[in-house]
Amino acid sequence: TAADAGDAITANFTDAAGLTTLNLNGMDGSDTFTVTPSATVTVNVKGSNPAAPATPGDVLQLDLAGAAGAAFTPTGSGAGTFTFTNRSPVSFVEIERFPDIVAPTVVASEFLYQSGAPHGVLYRFSEPIDPASLDPGDLTVRTVPPGAAYTPATVSYNAATQTATFTFPAGFTFPNGNYRATLAGMAVTDAAGNALAAEHVFDFFSLIGDVNRDRAVNGTDFAILAGSFGKTGQRYEGGDLNGDGAVNGSDFALLAGNFGRTVPPPPAPLALTEARSAPGAQPRRAQKRVAARQTW
Asked: Does the global pTM surpass 0.90?
């Protein structure tokens, strides 16, 4: 079906006897197309005028009842194709607003140790995240092999970089050892309510004084610190172990406290191989919001 706010919609049938393709063409003004994906008919939508930044512009809405395995491939500004495992594709061009059905993913994760206490864990996402969906309890860190569990005290979100930073309690640093961070798969959502499809897991280790991050505190680390001793404007890799911007006796004391210690890699069967799916998990919010992506 197609609905339009005052303008005509043209439907072109490629095969009147056995319909396989339906073309919907908008006219002047802001057109709204409502499409229910078909099991046998490919739908092509062309918004035509108005050009951005007209408001609301041409709008594509999808009724996904019964559709499975939805995926989206962008093909340009205001253009793309929705595909399904049990429905024919829906393609569009010159559409200013269209549904966001793509789940966010984690594109980078990092253990934050460089500034000393408190330690933290950072995640960068593939798209903007709804800050309200973030909670410190979304992240759990456990020792490897499994043992003690740690939960962050706070979480903050940077919209400009699409990153979430989970920070542990004030003054906290991870004891020497191997760790596994697990971000809950269905907890974090984008603005449209799409949740991470799988939990994200990554391994890291903590060893204060290991300046070059080779899992050992030894003469090599001491030499790096000594070469920067008395200097300011340094970073962890230059010997500033507590993140105060200067390399001095405080940093030397941290290194000396772990001198000669190592943190060997965890046993191979426990090493991270890939993110695990979270079958049966449910989103924190019972009902997802429906939102449209703005393309100008």
From this structure: no
